[in-house]
Every structure is written in structure tokens, then in C-alpha cells.
Amino acid sequence: MTHALALETLLGGKQVLPVHPRTALQWISVIRQGIPSAAVDSLAKAMHMTQSELATVLAIPERTLARRKKAGLLNSEESAKLVRLARVIERAEAVFENPDAALDWLKSGNAALSGATPLSLLDTEIGAETVLDTLGRIEHGVFA
Fold it and tell me: Which H or E run contains 65?
């Protein structure tokens, strides 16, 4: 599965996304326009999380997510956070070659991250980069 297809699948696929981005530049356009709020449910289901737990990971108030679900569309900032999370999940699944192992890793404390869970760092871009770097180290067999 290609990177773009994996992201699309995590966010609900063709049933949720009005367009089917294949490149980073196409994803930027989708994010700027806003992602349908149904993608939140798709990602929560893929991660075996409640909406409340996902709201915490995304650093979006739960009431805001509830309003966006009624409106049907996330704003560009919320869309960017959702895609960032989906990118990290996609990368973890590629590294661990198993969705359940990837989710376990994302939800567990990690010594390379000073004991923090990878999910707890994804509310910032620097945190997400750190998690992606750690996944790269694991993939290449470097002590992570």
C-alpha cells in the first residue's frame, strides 16, 4: 500500500474524502480546504480509541470536535492535526509490519522519548518529528 493510499484508508477512504490525494502537494490542498469530520470517526475506529481519547491526542477540545461533526468539516488546523496523526500511524504500521503492534507501540511509554508515549507527543509538530525519527531508528536497527 502506498503512503497516500494508507493515509486515505485511515481517514475513511473514498467514502469520506471527496478527493483522493496521491502526492504531498495534493494533501496540502485537502488540508487547506478542510477534511470531512467523518474522518475523525474513521481514525478513532482504526486506533481503537474513543472520540474523547482522540480529542486529547489531537489537542482539540472534545466539544469542538462534536461541533465539527455537526458542521461536517474540520478547519485547516484541525485537518492538519488529523493528517499528522494518520501519517505517524501509517509510518508505525510500516515499521512494525502489524497494525496492532504499531498501536501498542504508540500507546506505550518509550525510553527513547523519556518515558512518554508516542501518542502524547503528537500534539506538536516537533513531537511528531521526534516520534517519526524514533520510528526511523527502529526501522534501521539503531538503538531507539
Answer: helix 62-71
